[in-house]
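Reopening closed ticket. The problem is back. First fold of the pair:
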Amino acid sequence: MHKPLIKAVWFDMDGTILTYKTLPKGWSSWGAIGWVGNIYDQMEIWIDDFINKRITDDEIWGKTAQALKGISYAHAQKVLFPEHGKPPYNPNIIDSITKLKPKYHIGIISGGIELVAEKVREDLGLAFQLSNTIGVSNNVLDGTYKIGVPFFEKFTSLKNKANELGFDLSEICFVGDSINDMECFEHVGLPITYNPRYPEVAKAAKGNIIKDFSELLPFIQKHTIDSKT
């Protein structure tokens, strides 16, 4: 069995690095921003419209940003960072990334909210984060937005980042959990899925499944050539 040389370990965020388990409905930073503005149910309708191609990715983010306009960032922080000012990290993820960092280039490629992804990057000392922006100015959500990682085009974002940083796709391990991670799994050197939500996600990850992040570093070491970087 061919073992790739892995130099970078990049993560999905929502459902992988963190999960909002205490929300009334929803589990992602996208769900959390819906509860910030009490628009979660409306956002579910927009998502259905998007899935059924009645509106675009850009339109759903525009509608969300406008619906949130004027809400104080202090209020948003209480929902986005419920763990004593921190995002709701999944068990053992912080320790796992701490052990990975001396050996691998670590980053986030997420279709979630930049307000959260940037906090994760700062907390864990990661090399980069790519995500989607809900704008804040003068301490309020200001109605602006920017799509950095379109929902069904995460692999394009990953490929562009790899080209920018000089990594071959075969040198990247990508860790995710959902359907929009599947194309990434198909092209990287080592795909790994964390507690996948659907069987097809596990299949796309070539059956590489971890159930706890304490398993991640040993799994990578077992399935790859030792990196010299």
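Second fold of the pair, where the issue appears:
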Amino acid sequence: MSDQGVMQEQVRIFCSYAREDADFLQAFLKGFSGINELVNHNIISFYDKDIGFGLGINDSIEKALEQSDILVILYTGISKKSYSYTGWEVGYFQALISRDIKERGESSRRIVSFFVDRPPAVTAAVLGISIGLERDELSLGKVAYLTKVMSELPERIDDNPITKFLFEVTQLAEKRAPSSVDPNTSMLRGAERIRKIKEEIYPALKGDIYDCISSRIAIREVEQLLIKFELPRSEAQAVGLPDDALLTHKGSSALGSLFGSDDEAATTWGAFKQQARKIDQPFGTILFAIERALESAVEVGRPVDNEQVVRSPTDGKLYRVIVTEQTEYYDGRRAVYLWFIPILSWRWLGNEETSMLLGFIVLAAKYRFLFLEEKSEYAIERAKKLSDMNEIKETIISTLRELVLIEEEARALKLDGAKAMLTIVDRNADMEEVSRHMAAYEAARQEVEKSANAIVPLNPASEAFGKALADWWSTLEVFVDASRVVNSKYTVSALENLKLRFVDTQKPA
């Protein structure tokens, strides 16, 4: 009954849904159309798209709700958290029910929610019917699933909430516009409606629901850390990332302490920098690496820099910073996606000690090629010949990055422990001398890191940069001398020990 004081022949069902659930809407509209065929075509189901022009959307929906008998809520739980039009419609319809009861002592209106996992909070006090499917049911395939559905359908139509609801709507429609037939014929028609609902309309609806749910994403996980940067329209000659750029992160907690404990969080570049400066230790390159990668992506004509590496302050692991995608809008805004990909660990090959020797030799060769050979781009003599201070700064930071990468591989190979040294050095070596060499290297290494860390935040054109650069050259010379001893002396002993192992494993002729 329409609660406007006049009996209407039609049964009017207003369907409320989130835009993300449009496929569920179509499934139920099809079902309502099916039961409409069983009565005098006086069941009208509609939704907001059916509302004509001329009034504002709120006024139009209010008018439609006032004329409705049943408000059907379709809810999967994936609608946007920030806005829920469904909640407004439920509240308005509940107010209509309260008004009816106040004026006439009762209301023929009702609210029914169909949900996947759990009913929406706004319908907690009304009838809720679950339409969800278990994953093992979805894995059966549609034909097997429908066979299972029909085998489990109760004999009595009232014992299944969906068939009961559909039948009650037809009963209401028959009451509104009764057929001019005798009681026996009416009873037979009622029995036929029950049969068609159970054998035709219900399985068709369940099949359509199956199609809807099977195409939904049950779980979405981002295994690595993803940061989305939303850059506002840039002004002319803007330098660097603006402090109001929005950062949103998803995925692993590789840099979780920069964002907090939320699975998904947003902040600004300015706030991110303030937090990062507190924990970006020991060499302060997280901000530099992110900014370098992003700027290389958005600057026209500049190759994308995917060589940046950061050490997580959370787990101490190394991550490569990679730009994977960017979107530019007509108004100049940009969205850039930055991933933090963990650097792969070394794979063990057979005997642990043999793997240590082989790994040390490979890393020692890489180390020599990068830092000790004159033609290397990181060689101290070549770097000193550079005149562009910006290029010098880039070389210093790149040197530290390559050094960190080699050391990370060394840690993965367990080359930083006492067992490794006993495996690498000559069997007759003076262990006190070995200890002195290693201590000298470690002390020089720490000074190099300290001086590089002092250079990172400085403007290459500043006087402070010149002073820090002088300190860098002196600490780098000490480091190169200490590393040359370790590299040459102990690589030779590792080669000899590896040679002995190959001899030891030879079978006798």
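Update: turned out to be a display glitch only; the data is intact. The radius of gyration is 36 Å. The mean pLDDT is 80. Please close again.
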